[in-house]
Amino acid sequence: MKRKLLFSILSLMLSIGICAQSDAVLTSGHVVTHNDTILGEVSLNMERNDLMIRSGRNIYNWTADKVKSATTLDQQTGLSAKYLTGAFGMNSNSFFFEVLSEGKMTLIYREGLKFAEHDEMVYPPFYTYDNGVIHSLPINKKEFLNLFEEEYAAQMAEYFKFHQVDLSDKEDIRKIVEFYNSKFTGGASMFVTNKK
Q1: Which pLDDT value is given to residue 120?
Q2: What stretches of 34-169 show up as alpha helix (H) in DSSP?
Q3: Where does the chain show beta strands of DSSP type E?
Q4: Which domain holds residue 41?
Q5: Looking at the keywords, is Signal present (predicted)?
Q6: Mind listing the pLDDT tens digit for each residue in 137-178?
Q7: Is 18 part of a structural domain of the chain?
């Protein structure tokens, strides 16, 4: 009887703990750690910088430093999201970053990061991920266009002007990086002008 009561109390506490994760979304997916890949229901909390995965009878809870990447799939909408982890600036902690575009340039997103723990300045939420190194994306048009390889510079500048890219808009930045990445995947270009 005591075991049943103890088990019921523990189950209730675990359920409350799972539901209490604010801003966490429970979806199916997988998590890649430094040693393993685990499939299950993933709950990622960007504010607390941790995730929980329920796989069969096991429940794992990890901070970003224990994870390489995570992928989620929302069963209701069919939308998937990928997250990478890494450190930025002089922070010793790793953070989760949402992947907006992958290819020649990997564009990642995370709000509220500072270069150092006691830094006052909060960086814009756009970053690039290159061989495990995270760089803040420039918010100046000229510096931003310098990110692209020289042979594509004119096309990228034309795209930027034609689409009036706003460097503070998540969708605009994702689209221009997708356009750039399409140059390396053999996919058809979706940017057309009347220019001869």
Answers
A1: 78
A2: 141-145, 153-162
A3: 25-33, 37-45, 50-55, 58-63, 67-73, 80-86, 95-101, 106-109, 126-130, 133-136
A4: 25-86
A5: yes
A6: 998 999 999 999 889 989 999 999 999 999 999 999 999 999
A7: no
Instruction: Show Cβ contacts of residue 99 under 8 Å, excluding neighbours closer than 6 positions.
Output: 81, 82, 83, 84, 106, 107, 108, 109, 129
Decide if 154 is inside a domain. Answer: yes
For residues 102 and 174, membership in a common domain is answered with: yes
Do 56 and 108 lie in one domain? The reply is: no
What are φ and ψ of residue 173, in 5° steps?
-70, -40
DSSP reduced 3-state for 163: coil
SS3 34: coil
* 40, 110: one domain: no
**Which pTM was predicted?**
0.77
3-state secondary structure of 76: coil
pLDDT in tens, 28-59: 899 999 899 999 999 999 989 999 999 999 99
Residue 10 confidence (pLDDT) above 90: no
Tokens coding 90: 């002089």
